[in-house]
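ok so i was messing around last nite and threw this chain in just to see what happens. nothing serious, just curious
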Amino acid sequence: MANHTRPLSPHLQVYRWQLTMVLSITHRATGLVLSAALVPLVGWLLAAATGPEAFATANAILASVPGQLMLAAVSFAFYYHLCNGIRHLVWDAGWWLDIPEVYASGWSVVAAAIVLTVLTWAAIWGLLGGAS
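result:
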């Protein structure tokens, strides 16, 4: 009796993608990335506790190009998740709930995450002109 040609509830195929949807999905994805990043973090800490050879090996892995890309991705995920979490706290306070403010704060979160990630890696690579 039921019509099985349509979904039972609204689905991603039905909705037109918009910034708020993408930011929400990205917030969840960065939370998963941060959770998964705990595994190499614990491995690095275990290597540090094991001894200098294991620690040197772990540092060599993290200093490799794939290791640096992973760390850069994790740092972006951290900053995005942090900034978007702050945005949600602002919403919980009842601010920035009008559509133009929602979009402006959303783009601000993306920009802040990119800028903070670039600044972090510039500082790590010594590109900020600090003491030599």
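not much to say yet. DSSP finds five helices and no strands in the chain.
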